[in-house]
Amino acid sequence: MIAEAGLAALWFAAVLALLQLFLVGMGLAGGKGEVLGAVRPVAILQGVLTAGAFVALISLFLRSDMSVLLVATNSHSAKPWLYKFAGTWGNHEGSMLLWVTVMGVAGAAVALFERALKRDAHMATLGAQAAISLGFYAFLLFSSNPFARISPAPADGQGLNPLLQDPGLAFHPPTLYLGYVGLSVAFSFAVGSLLTRQVDAAFARAMRPWVLAAWIMLTLGITAGSYWAYYELGWGGWWFWDPVENASLMPWLAATALLHSVTVLATRDALRAWTVMLAVVAFSMSMVGTFLVRSGILTSVHAFAVDPERGSFILALLALYIGGALALFGWRIGTVREGAPFELVSRETFLVVNNLLLSVILGLVLIGTLYPLMTEAFGHKVSVGAPYFDRIAGPIALILLIVMAAGPLTRWRRDQARAVAGRMLIPAGVALAAVVLVGALAWGRIGLLPYCGLVVALAVGVGSLAPLWKRNLRRTPLFTYGMVIAHLGCAVSLAGMACDSAFTIEKLVAARPGDTIETAGWTLRFQRILPLAGDNWTALQADVIAERNGRAVVIHPQSRFFASPPTTTTEAALLTRWNGQLYVVLGQEADAGRWQMRIWWKPFVTLIWLGGIMIALGGLLALIGRERRGWLMKWRARRAMA
Amino acid sequence: MRRLLIWLPLALFLGFFALFASGLFKPDDRVITSKLIGQALPAFTLPAAASDRPALASTQLADGKPRLLNIFASWCIPCAAEAPQLMALKLAGVEIDAIAIRDARLDVDAFLARNGNPYSRIGLDARSGVQIALGSSGVPETFVIDGKGRIAYQHIGDIRADDVPMLLQRLKDAQ
């Protein structure tokens, strides 16, 4: 009954999306303005219905209703409830339903809360949102129905991929999807503004909070995903340039560029066409990412749905939406007036450079990700690995960070080169000191890229605090703090990455219980191996006493076996200290009584994710700060009128 | 110029679209052939990985005689599984050199004591640098090297008993 109700809600929502598109078309193009009043309630109801369908699927998973095909193939009654819950989106159909739900709810939010846009632009935005949703409803209903029944119902399900049975992963996909699909709102804004020819500062101010919110979610999602891969996959790495990681990075890069160009447009009314373009590109990257994952066109650890039929469906959607938006851009953007001019030495210039560098990195990641596909089209098989990405994106990212620190120290519109240089004196001094200091400490022991990374991290860390220099800290607006914290977060994260690649110590041993292993200042005493049973797994667990500076802690690396589906996972033991992490993985039994163990000491590696959280926090402060200022201004204006 | 720029994104997208479409409908082909077949080995000099075998340098692999270059590691289970096949190849008169990946001398010694030692020389590749340069993505892998130090064939995964005649034929072809 629940499954049928969910499916009905989905169909109803799809019909409402069609109605919404129709109403907007009739109101704006057909000249029947009076029907536009119905658009907002329709959009809100559509959001409620999609949310209802999603709740229905969650409850099916929680009840382990094995008469539903999706539950039977992806869940198991013996799983802990959290993973039954998270199993809802740990599969193709469920994650597409999540996608559609976020899209519906975001559309409802735009209908409810958007007040800054003119009516026509607002309605066109909702029309565009309905048009995108329609395609994904069709995809869900015609080729990925999550509510399909199976008869006869099996006695129990096949289980969820054990790698995904992890608290971190319960919340990583929803966060990421909020980001991906949140960008659809920016896309709809861009399409709406092109249709109504209203590309101006007001449009940018209306779009900015949506972009910021989506970007915050993307940042958190990527950070969480990176940490999950780090501790769950047991390879000791935090980023693998896997196609699906790239699929989340590319929208983030585009959204980061958009975030900055939308600020230029909102404050200075410049970069009009560019901002619209980026809004289109950002969501296009989300869709391309989904396509890459769902079609199985690039093989990847994330490819849980290798299916050419679905792939062609998504490809058709891509052609329709991205191709359509780009064609609309080409057709209409010529009629958008040039924005306000600015001088060479100005904050605008730095933001343009930032945008260009982000775009270059985006392009390189895109090419690297699609390279196997491109060469295969010409009959070769080549795959591009981490060295390509590190070597090519790394240096550009470092330049990007330097520009990032310099931008906020420059005034809008026009500035004096000499004055800018003066403001950058302290960060430049720090950079120089860092060159000498890091060089003296580690020259010859570390690679050039980590060396430059450490120097830039130190200099940019100081430089990103410089905008607060000589300011009244209590009167500094919240969004400035947001910017400072986000930029500092970039430096912190970079410091973590550089330390990890420069100073990590790795040791591989085959040890017997009773053995003592010395590495990186730690003494590890391997006590014993014990069997252990969990809710739906059994494990072999090592007791290892890790000792440093006279203080000892017991850690428990595990090798875990899941019965359904039969899989082994490694549960790394992590010991976090202020200056790094000890990372121990228990491998297989090498021969009688000896166990493989991989031990890493990773200095300051946690800074990578701390930085990610700071970036997201900075975004949140900026969002709150901007919204509060807008609200205060409105309130004052209303009081002045009274 | 401006007109051109405006339509450039759409043109690029259409290119990508064609690429996607061609990739999607192409039949799947999972046989991997290395790009390095027919190429000279990358130059390397590795320290000795075992106590009773000399070190390995790429120059030593171009002495006119075809041979096998086996990539293995003491911590790798399939490497132990393929040891009897390597031994059989050795008994058939094949010269086999090896590179031990991310290993330690004591572990390699123990591994060879346990599984037999068909190798003439063993180099230690502690950070997988040479392995990556060889275009090898895991252990075990086995390369057929011709007399001029060029890669003639790459075998991915462990050598099964029925792979032995094929490898012998490859070695003969590489003469």
From TrEMBL, chain A:
It is found in: Cell inner membrane. Keywords: Cell inner membrane, Cell membrane, Cytochrome c-type biogenesis, Membrane, Transmembrane, Transmembrane helix. Belongs to the CcmF/CycK/Ccl1/NrfE/CcsA family. Its main location: membrane. It comes from Sphingobium scionense. One of its GO terms (molecular function) is heme transmembrane transporter activity. PANTHER family: CYTOCHROME C ASSEMBLY PROTEIN-RELATED, CYTOCHROME C-TYPE BIOGENESIS PROTEIN CCMF. This is Cytochrome c-type biogenesis protein CcmF. Residues 89-295 form the Cytochrome c assembly protein domain. Pfam families: CcmF_C, Cytochrom_C_asm. GO terms for biological process: cytochrome complex assembly.
From TrEMBL, chain B:
PROSITE patterns: THIOREDOXIN_2. It is found in: Cell envelope. It comes from Sphingobium scionense. One of its GO terms (cellular component) is cell envelope. Keywords: Cytochrome c-type biogenesis, Disulfide bond, Redox-active center. It holds the Pfam family Redoxin. The lineage of its organism: Bacteria, Pseudomonadati, Pseudomonadota, Alphaproteobacteria, Sphingomonadales. One of its GO terms (biological process) is cytochrome complex assembly. GO terms for molecular function: oxidoreductase activity. Coiled coil: none annotated. Its main location: other. The keyword Disulfide bond applies. Residues 35-175 form the Thioredoxin domain. This is Cytochrome c biogenesis protein CcmG/thiol:disulfide interchange protein DsbE.
